[in-house]
Amino acid sequence: MEKMSNNFFSKYKIQAIDVKSKLLSRSLLWMSLGLMVIIFVAWLSSTFQAFNNFVVTFSIGSRWGLAWLFNLIIIFSLFFCIQNKNINIMIPVILYAIFAIYEGMFITTILSFTGTTNIVKDLLLYMLIPSFVFLVMGIIAYTNLINFSKLIPFTFFGFFAILILSLIMIFTASKTIEMLYIIIASAMFIIWIGVDLQMIARTEDALPNYVDKSTINRISFMFGVKLFIDFVNLLMIVLRIFRNR
Q1: Which has the closest alpha carbon to 138: 31, 18, 17, 19?
Q2: Domain extent for 196
Q3: Would 1 be classed as within a structural domain?
Q4: Domain assignment of residue 10, yes or no
Q5: pLDDT tens digit string along 48-74?
Q6: Is 5 within the bounds of a domain?
Q7: C-alpha span between 94 and 52 (Å, rounded)
Q8: For 104-150, what is the HEC assignment?
Q9: CB of 201 closer than 8 Å to CB of 137
């Protein structure tokens, strides 16, 4: 089968790529590019006061509901464009950049209100925790120690739970409710990290050894965006924990 696949790509001169061990690295690369955008926004904010004032004003001026709506529109537009092969890959890449910039502005604003003297340094330190979680969950996912797909139903209950708790926290500043929110949200996002990493491993096994470059680019980009969202959500939880200290 592998020989036939090689002959096919050779005969029709289709640019092919060895998919084994490439999908994960390319997905992590896309995720890392999004994180680099966040770090760049934080650096600009710490270097140029005018830009920092704009970031803070923009973030504070955005209503909570409108901010979530904008995020959802960007995310749905991203995945719609990725899955539609008739749409040029550069369109979702541009949307991804806008999404990363938007997330970077909110994260930078949160760090600014913590009274930090070095936004970039503190951001990199806070990123260590999600990075460690990714490493551990990656090992578990790729060794199949846990079947994360069986835990997906719990994440739906967790989503509705944190949505309700978020609405409650608008009207009350209860530490107990916020702690419950942090615990449920952390568990849900950690599970989704495991789910996405395991999906990457299983997709690698399901795909043929050689896949055309455009297909692997779209698949890796889709997983990269998912991993970026997982990372940012977990980073937000970490920031919430240390901000309250």
Answers
A1: 31
A2: 17-243
A3: no
A4: no
A5: 877 777 776 766 555 555 666 777 788
A6: no
A7: 23
A8: HHHHHHHHHCCCCCCHHHHHHHHHHHHHHHHHHHHHHHHCCCCCHHH
A9: no
